[in-house]
Every structure is written in C-alpha cells, then in structure tokens.
Write a structure and sequence with these properties.
The protein is of the alpha+beta class. It is built from 10 helices and 13 strands. Pfam families: PDZ_2 (PF13180).
C-alpha cells in the first residue's frame, strides 16, 4: 500500500512539472531577453557558445531554451548561429536555420538583410537558400529606402507602373533628393539597391556634378528630373548621353524648383485638369477646369509654356496669374490671382510596403 502511495505521489509531481515547465522556461527566457534589451549590451561569448552547444542537447527543454535565448540575442549571436546552421548535426542545423528565419522577418531591416544573406549562402539547405535569395533583393530595397528617408530624402510609390515594367507586379519608386539632403554624394550609392526606382528627382539638391553618376546602372529608370540644381551643363549633357533609353521629354531640366501644383493637358491652352491638394495652386483658389491665360502679364500659350515661365521664378516668390473660368451661367470670367510658389517635393507621404515573409515551414 505504501509503495502504491509513493508511486502515485511521484506521478503527480512529474505531471505537475511537465505542466508548469514550459511556462517557467518561457517566463525565464522572456525575462532574460528583457534584461539584455535593458542593458543595451551584447552577452558574453561564452554564453552564446554554450547555447550553440545546447542546440544539440539530449534534453528537449534545454534545446528549446537555447534556441529561444539565441533568437532573443540577435546580432551578437549572428556569426555563431550562421556557423551552426552549416553543422553536420541535423538538430543543430535545423534549429540554427529556424533562428535565421525568425531574424529574417524582423522589423530591424539590417538584421533581416544579414540573416537573409546567411540563409542565401547555405549550400546544405537548398530550399531555404533559394527562397532567401529571392527575398533578399526586396529587403535590401526597403532598407535602402528607409536609409534615404533618414538622410533627408523621400520617395513616392507609383503603383500604376506595377506589372508594366518587365511584366512583374511590384511597386515602383520615385526617389526625391531635395534641399534637405544630408547624405552627400557618397550615400547616393544606396540607389543601386533600389532596382524598382523608375524616376530620380533632384530638387534644389546641395550636390556637385559627381552626383549624376548615380543615375547609371538603374535597370528600370524611366525619368530624370533636375530642378533648380547647380549641376553644370556639360555634366548634364554627359549623363544624358549615357542614358539613351530616356527620351528628351523624360529627361526634364529646369532652372528652378518652383512648384505651382496643377496638372494640365496637351493642347492650345493651359487647361487645368487637376489641382494638387494643399499646393500653391489650391491655396490660391485655382480650380479644375480653369484656363491660365497669363503669368505676370505674359501670355501663356499652352501648358509647356506655363511650365517654362514658372521655372523663371524661385520657390517662395509670388506671381500674378490671369485665370479664365466658366461661371454658373456658362459665361466666362477673368480673375487675377496672386500665387506664392512652393518648392517641388513629395506631394503625399508614401508608406513602405510590408516586408514579404519567407513562408518556409519551421522544422
């Protein structure tokens, strides 16, 4: 009878340990991650090496704990985790691969890129390697866009081009380097990581002729805008010759970056087809359907002529526009509107697309 009671007690304790152990491990690991984050420093190499060894432990709980700890460490464990992913031990390799896969989906673009680079180089794991290679270019592109924004540049997404270039559905970007650019010429090399850049726009950019070299080797570049820059005419002509696929209309050079904020149609008049919200034109009271007949008393023959006239003024200057507008009773009204010109830049705030997942099964 005593033996039966002892056995029952043993089984009850074992069941309780089995029930509570996973949650205890999870709480311990979570606390450890929080300690590392709060400390703001990397763990000592001995701890990382110990966890790498424990990935192949005979104890399941120890293997789980080690994988969770290494996942939480991040960059400081990158080199050893990548080495473990190439291990001859299937258990060690699989767990290390799973850590890299988790890192590849992190919001930290730098960590995601580095993890994907390691996965792409895994000759012993061809499926993961092929998928990582496919996603790597996309993550690098998003990381480059974020870096450009942090340096004072901006971008806009042109989803209308999706599927029209190389018949591949994808967002395409207009990269804007304006007067607030802090990256100099050196940081323009980031453009090489943005294969879906379809337009590069320099608006009053504080850059020298050397910056124009960045326009080369962009496979999907369709338009270049140089507004109010200090680039020399010889340098502009030289880069124009190096970009034969961009026609004259889409290689747009203007002496000023002054921006009115309307869209017009080709024709014999400067007919306003659309007014950009919150632009200089919108604030001045220009409406869709208006015809701009004069600017500072000079006749405006068509939309191209209007563009040329505006380029003679600087952002912040006020010009007088003569507007012909059709009234409610179909009669034509002539209005004189003062307009304070703005500066070319992004007309809307673009959001980066969500990072695409590898969607590989964790094993």
């Amino acid at each position: 009878m005593l033996l039966k009671v002892t056995i029952l007690r043993f089984l009850l304790v074992a069941a309780m340990v089995g029930f509570f152990l996973p949650s205890i491990l999870a709480e311990t690991t979570s606390s450890r991650r929080q300690e590392v984050a709060e400390a703001g420093t990397s763990l000592d190499p001995e701890s990382i090496s110990r966890w790498i060894d424990q990935l192949d432990s005979e104890q399941f709980e120890e293997r789980e704990r080690a994988q969770s700890e290494l996942t939480g460490v991040g960059f400081p464990a990158l080199s050893e985790v990548a080495g473990a992913a190439r291990s001859a031990s299937l258990e060690t390799s699989t767990r290390a691969i799973n850590i890299l896969l988790t890192w590849s989906e992190r919001e930290d673009r730098q960590l995601a890129v580095t993890a994907l680079e390691q996965l792409a180089a895994m000759k012993n794991r061809p499926i993961e390697s092929a998928r990582a290679t496919e996603v790597l270019a996309e993550v690098r592109e998003l990381a480059a866009l974020e870096e450009i924004v942090s340096l004072g540049g901006s971008y806009q997404v042109n989803s209308q081009l999706s599927g029209l270039i190389n018949l591949v559905p994808a967002d395409h970007y207009q990269i804007i380097i304006g007067s607030e650019w802090r990256g100099g010429v050196e940081s323009l090399k980031l453009l090489q990581d943005i294969p879906h850049a379809w337009a590069i726009s320099f608006y009053s950019s504080p850059l020298t002729d050397e910056a124009l070299d960045c326009l080369q080797n962009l496979p999907q570049l369709m338009r270049v805008e140089l507004y109010g820059t200090s680039f020399s005419k010889p340098a502009i002509e030289e880069i124009r010759q190096k970009l034969p696929n961009i026609n004259e209309k889409n290689f747009d050079v203007r002496q000023s970056a002054a921006f009115l904020g309307i869209r017009g149609s080709e024709g014999e008049t400067a007919h306003v087809v659309d007014v950009v919200p919150d632009s200089a034109a919108a604030k001045a009271g220009i409406h869709t359907g208006d015809i701009i007949s004069h600017l500072e008393g000079k006749e405006v023959a068509d939309f191209a002529a209007l563009t040329s006239l505006i380029a003679q003024y600087q952002p912040g200057e006020t010009v007088q526009l003569t507007i012909v507008r059709q009234g409610e009773n179909q009669e034509l009204q002539t209005l004189e509107l003062p307009v304070k010109l703005a500066q070319w830049g992004p007309t809307s705030r673009a959001e980066l697309p969500e990072l695409r997942k590898l969607n590989l099964e964790r094993r």
